[in-house]
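Sequence only, no structure available. Ideas?
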Amino acid sequence: MSELLLQAAAAGDLPRVQALLTAGADCNARDAEGATALMLAAHAGCLEVVRALVAAGADVNATDPRGWGALMKAIYNPELDRGFADVVDALIRAGAGIEAPITYGIRPLMLAAGYGEAAVVETLLRAGADVLARNDGGLTALMMVKEKFYVDVINLLHEAERDAGVGEGAARPSTRRAPRS
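Reply:
I predicted one. Tokens follow.
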């Protein structure tokens, strides 16, 4: 029954997912590659299926053997060439860790920025993602994306860095002395 749930979740078949959950399918079962139904639904951008699985108790922070969880899978789907900001938001609200890294210390914000997913970047920043976090190579999300010409993403990251008190345009304490009276 769990295999059927995995298939239904990947296909975005909400009525079937609900029926299988009601019948007792394990919402945290894994496929041969270690993905859960929640990861498959998130990767496909199936918001309502994601919500149903979360409501059934799916582990929002489970990861596959490569360290990818549902949040990372929702950030960008190469087959569809897009990310799913609404799914990312739902997973964050359900408790998904917004700073959980994958290989080389890549964090969700870095992955979203690297793929030019402005809506996902904005969602992560609103949720409190650390714009100053660095990967294992010492790079921030902005450093990683600067040469990719994703203008919307670069602007969002510049603004977030400025708000954090660093980067171009950040308010800095004055080094000039006040005139003597």
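The domain at 98-168 is CATH 1.25.40.20 (Serine Threonine Protein Phosphatase 5, Tetratricopeptide repeat).
Hope that gets you unstuck.
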